[in-house]
Specification:
Length: 196
């Protein structure tokens, strides 16, 4: 899963590649002047409307972002389910991540970020399970090394930025005795799980 895009530049997360396998970065969330983007998981729809679709997810990698409504943005798509739509009172919740035990213990990764909101008369969306950041007055960042989305910010009595997306990762297994070579600058850890 690619790293999350920076909160002010409206960029998609960076792609991650292992051999011929490419994991797309997540789609950026919407702003006043642009819509949520497509990516591994789609960014949430913007909070102008009455309706604004979120970005599309990519088959096998993530799901669509939720639809924005009125002054409340949709939640970002997760790796297991789409983000929720915004409503007249709430930002949409981020889609949940997916569980994996490849590292020897069950870990959920890839949650979508919660939708932003109007801080005069509403409530933000919650981040999806697996590290999605909550929306709010200063959206929370996605959890590191999960590829999760950052939460949306807010506007009204004051304007607040959304949170950065969480950095991505690639997880794979090798048989005992095999060795892997990593490119310069790659941060990596290893552990023995069963016979791998």
């Amino acid at each position: 899963v690619g790293a999350g895009g920076a909160k002010n530049t409206a960029e998609n997360g960076g792609d991650s590649q292992f051999g011929s396998i490419v994991s797309l970065g997540g789609g950026h969330g919407a702003g006043d002047a642009y819509s949520g983007a497509s990516g591994a998981s789609g960014g949430g729809g913007k909070n102008t409307g009455p309706y604004e679709d979120g970005g599309s997810g990519t088959f096998g990698q993530g799901f669509d972002g939720g639809q924005g409504y009125g002054q409340h943005a949709g939640g970002g798509g997760g790796t297991s389910v789409a983000g929720s739509n915004g409503t007249t009172s709430f930002g949409g919740n981020g889609g949940n991540g997916i569980s994996s035990s490849i590292t020897g213990s069950e870990v959920v990764r890839g949650g979508g970020g919660g939708g932003g909101y109007d801080n005069r008369n509403g409530s933000p969306g919650s981040g999806g399970t697996g590290g999605g950041g909550n929306g709010g007055n200063g959206g929370r960042p996605g959890a590191v090394n999960t590829g999760s989305g950052g939460g949306g910010g807010s506007f009204g009595t004051a304007n607040y930025d959304g949170g950065n997306g969480g950095s991505g990762l690639v997880v794979f297994t090798l048989p005992l005795g095999a060795a892997a070579t990593f490119s310069s600058g790659v941060t990596q850890t290893s552990t023995t799980v069963g016979g791998n």
